[in-house]
Amino acid sequence: MTVTLEQIAQWVDGQLHGPKEAEIEKIAPLPKAGPNDATFLNDNRYQHQLAGCQAGVILLTEQNAQYAKGSVIVVKDPYLAYARLAQYMDSTPKSADGIHPSAVISAQATLGKNVSIGASAVIEAGAVLADDVQIGAGCFVGENTQIGTGTKLWANVSVYHDVEIGSQCLIQSGAVIGSDGFGYANDRGQWIKIPQTGRVILGDRVEIGASTCIDRGALEDTVIHDGVIIDNLCQIAHNVEIGENTAIAGCTTMAGSLKVGKYCIIGGASVFNGHMEICDQVHISGMSMVMRPIDKPGVYSSGIPAQTNKEWRKTAARVMQIDQMHKRIRELEHKLAELDANNNK
């Protein structure tokens, strides 16, 4: 795709310093960008790279514009401008184009305008696909599931029965939406399955990463609100509720009936206990183990940063002695208190 600097400046709401008719073909990293590329500077640590940058145009702040050679577009937030430009120049293909002859579509399914369904996809009875929905090859859409306008499923996504997916959602390959939650009762050592009769409800503009699983509710619904983004390989258990515009990085696991607030950021490989609540605007560092409710916004962390093996072995040995050390400290505190009492007589 070829665009002019004038078009770019208008799209990202920036101020152009350079020839408006010059053309750009793609976006490239700052140190590798050439004359036909756009790039951006978002981190002042890389300001020194501006002097040698050969890009056709650079998106940057007014503060950094003086250090660049050639054309620039001055914006308030270069990373946000880059994101908008990337959308403008996006060449990602459709997950399906038209309805493939091998797709299996129930006569009781309802399709809107411009729906595309890929090879070997299955659409069950009662399913409703709104206008401009794309269903990739090998997908399964279960009975009575509803998918909103402009939503896109990549190949081999499985959406079970009675699921509701909003408009403009994006679901990556291998995701499973609406599988059974992990619900069982124990009868003298034997596990008795509890049918999971709730649903999964995804709001508008929700994005689900590859091979992420979202379980249906046991009795009530699992609910993912508008604007939530979930990375690859995450597990969202039954009856979880995730608030608007929360972001969840890869390999995160959330146990059943957890409630996460709005505008939270969850670092990768974090683990959450179930049946508790995380308030709005909480930032969890990667690989955290969240075992208790959080009722105040802020940054929370757990886990031990990587050390050399030798250092880690020393740390682990000391951790094993914490209880003994605690008892010795309490005894010393008690003796000091007795000495103070005797000295004050």
How would you portray this structure in words?
The chain has about 350 residues and is of the alpha/beta class. The protein is built from five helices and 38 strands. The strands form six sheets. It has a ten-stranded parallel sheet with strand order 8-11-14-17-20-25-28-31-34-37, with no helix packed on it. Strand 21 (about 185) and strand 22 (about 190-195) form a beta hairpin. The longest helix is centred in the last third of the chain and has 22 residues, at about 320-345. About 30% of the residues are buried. The model has no long low-confidence stretch (mean pLDDT about 95).
Which descriptors apply to this entry?
single chain; 345 residues; alpha/beta; 10-stranded parallel sheet; 5 helices; 38 strands; 17% helix; flat
Tally of alpha and pi helices: 5
Distance between the termini: 88 Å
Instruction: Give the CA-based shape.
Output: flat
Fraction of residues in H or I helices = 10-25%
Task: Estimate the strand proportion.
Answer: 25-35%
Secondary structure category: alpha/beta
Main beta sheet strand tally, sense and closure? 10 strands, parallel
Q: What quaternary form is this? A: single chain
Tell me how many strands there are: 38
CA radius of gyration: 27 Å
- Indicate the low-confidence ranges by residue numbers: none
What's the mean pLDDT score? 97
Describe the strand arrangement of the main beta sheet, using strand numbers.
8-11-14-17-20-25-28-31-34-37
